Give the backbone structure.
Amino acid sequence: MANPKILEQKQLVIDEIKSKIENSNGVVLFDYRGLTDAEIKELKLALREVDSEYKVYKNTLMQRALNDLNIDISEHLNGPSALAYSVDQIAPIKVLANFMKKHKAVTLKVGLVDNEVTTSDKLQELATIPSREGLLTMLAGGMIAIPKDLAICLDLHAKNLEENN
């Protein structure tokens, strides 16, 4: 029989993993093998800049936490895995995708975007989406174009009426 203190510590870690996943809109499971300490520091800083974090947990503990949350990604929990998470759905995905361009050792395994399992191909696709601020800027630009075009048309129409009178 296992030591009750060890079981209690493991349960605390499982609860921590569950909490991180439940409180995050974007979660990415990735393979970090082959990264040096300096590269890991670089990745941590890049994630911190977008209010994201990552942590390495034992696969068995991650599996237990995911089972408690009714999330099945067991086929991706082989080999060393790290868990990146953020309140922003896309932020950790974008950081990891950019990091992968320079560091071929990192590979995306699977993700949870708004608690839906997302494949690595879909994660790569999501990484190309502009940031929230970029999308809002594009929306504002599109919305301001309509009144601007209307103002130009009305001005031209007014000038045309003045010339005809």
